[in-house]
Specification:
With 130 residues, this protein is mainly α. The chain has one domain (3-120). The protein has 4 helices and no strands. α1 (3-30) packs antiparallel against α2, α1 (3-30) packs antiparallel against α4 and α3 (71-93) runs antiparallel to α4. The radius of gyration is 16 Å and the shape is globular. The chain starts with a helix and ends in a 10-residue tail after the last helix. 18% of the residues are buried.
Length: 130
């Protein structure tokens, strides 16, 4: 079996797990559920995101496309950093519920942008022909 399709499948599966887990934790945040502080809730997303990043780096290396060289990967990297900051504010660091809700919405929009960039391989996916 060729490694690239397996890496891509792993990457996509991890994206689905990341998005689903983030939405679930956002719902728990809105409901002020104690599950948000459960040890597995705090560890599993980091393990999944490590696999997600490793698979993404592996694919980029195999395609010989790199952030700061290829515009779409640069956009994806910058959006990933924004997603991490917004997600942290939404789930942990937001001082008020209003701030956490706004950060949660911003993180979801950023996540949507990340997926669109990945699918179109364009930093401007709304302008990419499909």
């Amino acid at each position: 079996m060729e490694i690239y399709p397996a890496l891509k499948l792993l990457h996509v599966a991890c994206v689905v797990a990341t998005a689903s887990g983030f939405v679930l934790r956002g719902i728990w945040m809105l409901g002020e559920s104690p599950l948000l502080r459960h040890p597995l809730t705090r560890v599993l997303p980091h393990l999944n995101d490590t696999l997600l990043l490793a698979a993404g780096i592996g694919m980029a290396m195999m395609l010989h496309q790199y952030p700061l060289v290829d515009g779409w990967l640069t956009a994806k990297l910058l959006a990933l950093l924004l997603y991490i900051v917004l997600g942290t504010v939404a789930l942990k660091r937001g001082r008020t519920k209003r701030i956490r809700i706004l950060a949660f919405g911003g993180a979801l929009l950023t996540l949507s942008y990340l997926v669109a960039v990945a699918l179109t391989r364009s930093a401007w996916p709304m302008l990419a022909g499909g």
